[in-house]
Amino acid sequence: MEGRDYIPEGFIAISFIGDVTNGQLRSAVAYGGYNGAMVEATIAVERIHKEMLWYMFHYPFVQLGVKKVVCRIDSSNEKSINLAKKLGFKYECILHDCSPDGDLHIVSLTKEECRYLRD
Questions:
Q1: I need a labelling partner for 50 at 20 to 30 A (CA). Which of 59, 93, 113, 114 fits?
Q2: Per-residue pLDDT tens digits of the chain, which is 119 residues long
Q3: CB distance 20 to 49 below 8 Å
Q4: DSSP structure string for 58-97
Q5: Which residues pair with 118 in a beta bridge?
Q6: CA–CA distance, 74 with 105 (Å, rounded to integer)
Q7: Rounded to an integer, what is the distance from CA 6 to the centroid of its chain?
């Protein structure tokens, strides 16, 4: 699964959403760091379908009412960086020397930018 190799240090999950097909976990997201305006997400994907994408973003934007979903991605995790781009996340910044493997990419997505909640 993309993203499975790095869970940020100190990440405390408040909720999980997962897709299990034929007894196998295909995709999952863990949410943490909720502060009313944003929530952090850690996403792991082997294979994902449109319905799961809707659930993945409906929860933070509609149920929690956050303005942004934020992800921290280790600079060595190319698969997760590419996945974030495909999902529509935008770069906020790069924190140099803030990860065991080097830099840490901070990406975010707003409800307005999220194409998975549209009809």
A1: 93
A2: 444 444 555 555 678 888 888 888 889 999 998 888 999 999 988 888 889 999 999 999 999 999 999 999 999 999 999 999 999 999 999 999 988 889 999 999 999 999 999 75
A3: no
A4: HIIIIIS--SEEEEEEETT-HHHHHHHHHHT-EEEEEEEE
A5: none
A6: 6
A7: 12
49 secondary structure, DSSP code:
-
Domains of the chain: 13-117 (3.40.630.30)
Tokens 């934020």 label which residue? Answer: 70
Q: Which two tokens stand for residue 53?
A: 């994408």
Q: Do the Cβ atoms of 11 and 71 come closer than 8 Å?
A: no
Structure tokens given for 26: 């295909």
